Amino acid sequence: MRRRSLLRALPALSGLPVLPRPAAAASRPLPRTLRFSWAGNAGPLHPHRYAPNQMYAQAMLYEPLVRYMEGGRLAPALATAWEREDDGRGYVFTLRPGLRFTDGAPFDAAAVVANIRALLAQPSRHNWLELVAQIEDVEAVDPGTVRLRLRGPYHPALMELALIRPLRFASPAVLRPDGGVDAPIGTGPWLLAETHPGQHDLFRRNPGYWGEPPALEQVMVRVVSDSNTRALALEAGEIDLVYGTDQLDADTFRRFAADRRFTTAISPPLATRLVALNSARFPTDDPAVRRAIAHGIDRAALVRHVLLDTEPAAGTLFAENFPYTGLGLRAPAFDRAAAVALLEQAGWHLPPGARLRQREGRELVLDLCFTGGDALQKALAEAMQGDLARIGIGARLLGEDSATYLGRQKSGEFGMIFADTWGAPYDPHAFLGSMRQPAHADYQAQRGLPMKDEVDRRIGAVLATTDEEKRAAEYRWLLTTLHEQAVYFPISFLTNKLVHRADLGAVPFGGTRYEIPFDRIRPHG
């Protein structure tokens, strides 16, 4: 990690909309405002919904019963204590007393029950998350105590309660029978003050927040869809902070790191950047082709020349700093001769004068799919295309809009497709749990495996067992099997990068990939 710091007072910010102030306060200085940017508006900010809701913003407004902390610890949040029942099928939570939503409604057991039952009323919306399917019922024992009853033992229950969505809480007054909300009303340290589509969102400090109040008074989030425009805005002093995985390209980040006017930092590994290979579609249905691809792409060159060493190379599905992942697995070495030998042995021969290998009259060509507007994915795809061509594999690059790209992930219309793991606290349990549903690329990538049914069965077992030794053994089998079947080509371990002007002050990293700790930013002065 690299960091430079020069602390002085955060300057007053001009040219930004601010909330009206009472006339009596006119002589006071303007509120301290952090100017940030994001690719789109925060969305309607429903705590139980997904896109277009932005996760960083949901985390600003809504809180969980328990909070995930760096290093995998769980800490009290809206619940001060919890106890697992003897049969492993339930949890009893003691709620923090005296809390209120920003509309003044009390946060109590009735509010928890209302929110969770709203989730249970729409199971198909949340079937990717095993905990929702495992919840049998929720009841208010008394105003300060909630009992969550599960259908069976479920080891990751507390971790999934810590997720940004969908198990966070809005005021019951705004929950609608159709599952929507009338307004974004939570208990968090921020509230949404105003939103202008295509322009900005303004968040204001929650004056009634139960915890330590943020030092900042406002967070202005400008809508900036392009990373180059974002970099120019930072240099021009129009925004104060860039934070995230791909908010700046690697070359621009390195340029800021060399500029003494700015502070830069890189987080520890948070998730995995990867390409999924379709085991149910020609030609990646052939294990020899998948293994040849694993040998034939130069991962180190991708990290060095495209990512510019801003992310460490990844040889496994998960980094070894996640639970149950320190198995000593290693990626196949980059070795074009080994890749060619695998293809030849499998009957994929290169006719004289041809560029592509063939078998039984069919050329060895696959679709390599990425998000068209993602310049980094495009650069990685082009480099991969070149490596594959050198071993006689053709890669048609398909860069499409996000909706089409996500549709391909779900339908299986891909040979190779970019994807990420989800990071803490999802990895590995929630990410593995989602592999059993065709909601992401993983189900399609694995669908052609002869042991797919056993993979799904063992995922169910690892999530349900209360035996620690058995759980570790199941994770070992699952992660080793997926590794050996070469249905993933891990590229790098994702990190968050931050850049801000050196006079901003202290900016920490959040405990997860998707949380931006605005409430812990401490401007000097």
Mean pLDDT, all residues? 90
CATH architecture of the largest domain: Roll
Rg over CA atoms, rounded to whole Å, is 24 Å
Q: Helical stretch count?
A: 15
Strand sequence of the main sheet, in spatial order? 17-16-18-13-19
Tally the structural domains. Answer: 3
- Net shape: globular
By CATH, the superfamily of the largest domain comes out as Dipeptide-binding Protein, Domain 3
DSSP E strands, number: 22
What composes the largest sheet?
A: 5 strands, mixed
Identify low-pLDDT runs: 1-30
List the helices and strands and how they pair.
Elements: E1 33-38, H1 55-61, E2 66-68, E3 74-76, E4 79-84, E5 90-95, H2 109-120, H3 130-134, E6 135-142, E7 145-150, H4 157-161, E8 190-196, E9 200-205, E10 218-223, H5 227-235, E11 241-244, H6 250-257, E12 262-266, E13 271-277, H7 287-296, H8 299-306, H9 336-345, E14 358-359, E15 362-363, E16 365-371, H10 375-389, E17 394-400, H11 402-411, E18 416-420, H12 429-434, H13 441-446, H14 452-464, H15 468-484, E19 488-494, E20 497-501, E21 505-506, E22 522-523
Parallel strand pairs: 1-10, 16-17, 16-18
Antiparallel strand pairs: 2-3, 4-5, 5-7, 6-7, 8-9, 9-10, 11-20, 12-20, 13-18, 13-19, 14-15, 21-22
Helix pairs in contact: 7-9, 14-15
